[in-house]
Amino acid sequence: MTRRLLALAALAALVLALPAALRADGRRAHPCHARLPHGPALPAPIVMRTACGSFHVATDGRVSRLPRHWLVRHSGGTGRRFEATLNVHRNRAGRYFLLEHGRLLWRSHALYPNDGGSIGFGPGEFAFASYCRGVYLTDLRGAERLVVRGRGLYPYDFTDAGDLIVVASRTIVIVSRQGRTLRRFHFRARNGLAFDARSDTLFFVTRRGRLAVVRGTQLRLARRIRIDGALSAQNGLLVFGGAHSITVSRRDGSVVARAAWESRSLGADSGVSVEPGGRAFAFRLSDARPGARSATATIYLLRRGASRATPLYRHHLGPSGCAVGANLSWHGRFLLYSSTDGHQAVVDTATGGVTDLSRLATLLPRLSVAEHASPAWTSDLGS
User: Fold this and answer.
1) Are 214 and 201 in contact (CB under 8 A)?
2) Is 106 within the bounds of a domain?
3) Domain containing 213 — which CATH number?
4) Is residue 30 part of a domain?
């Protein structure tokens, strides 16, 4: 009798669940129409994106669906856009189209089939690369012009004056709005280069090892650099991310913090995220490799003036496929952490407290169980 009652109860539960899984015509409901879950309490709102759309998570954990195309209007998209609200499309024939609020603003005069490269937006300008031909520039009123000829070039960024920064393997070319080459610089490839948009300043290390600072077309040489690692500029500081070290310096090259590790199996695979006030620096070390079934990752915190980093949060990694890495972003003292294996969390750098977001990410409407949601602080996406 008891077994029969249990069977009837299970059947009743299944019948009640069917309307949520099936449409009125008996077909399975689209996964994007699934019920929204409830998340954990957060220190600040975040936005999580899947193939089904963008979702706002409030500080009390309430999840709401954002309007279609909300993310397009509130994110930077492909690089800086200088207040422009442009979307880029490229058809199969290889023609570029720029749309503004759904209306065609500009299209390329020539075709670039199977030859698409990186793009860049300037103040009233658009640049794109053709791998075999070079970099093209337009003022959006006329046809594109080939301004730097060569293979493997790409438009890196624009200055506030509208000059285009073009980069090759070891050469930087500054091009005016009119398409004229203003300056050429050679840099040390293992350090790369960085452009600080807030101060409109370009940084690189010369082949003789001097830190170079460029504003406009004016070059100033700072101190000699004996630091390994690729260069980036964040919040008024320079970061050198090496194979087994992290070094943070001022804009003149003087060191403010440094950390190193001896293990050859560990690598920094998230870059370095600089706290907005420049007082702390977060990065991840892991032994993950493409194709590995499992690994371990640790988030470290490096304080200004320190020579050792403190472990903040450690966890096991699941399969990451061919992509291995993570993203870290600050909001006050909190870090939003997102790993390529799907692990997501908010970490309190003051207390070490962790709010796991991984379960919420798996419960959001998505097209595939293998899909990972992409989180971001709402404040980072603009109003």
Assistant:
1) yes
2) yes
3) 2.130.10.10
4) no
Token readout for 347 is 């970490």
Residue 322, in any domain of the structure: no
Q: Which domain holds residue 110?
A: 81-196+199-235
* H-helix or E-strand spanning residue 297: strand 295-303
Q: In what order do the strands lie in the sheet with 295-303?
A: 267-274, 280-286, 295-303, 310-317
Q: Is 16 helix (H, G, I), strand (E, B) or coil?
A: helix
Counted domains in the chain: 1
Contact predicate 374/361, CB 8 Å: no
CA-closest candidate to residue 303, choices 282, 285, 330: 282
Contact present, 290 and 320 (Cβ < 8 Å)? yes
* Interval 218-255: pLDDT, tens: 999 999 998 889 999 999 999 999 989 999 999 999 99
pLDDT tens per residue, range 58-90: 999 999 999 987 776 665 444 555 656 788 899
| pLDDT band at residue 143 under the 50/70/90 scheme | very high
- Predicted confidence at residue 10, as pLDDT, reads 44
DSSP H or E segment with residue 70: helix 70-74
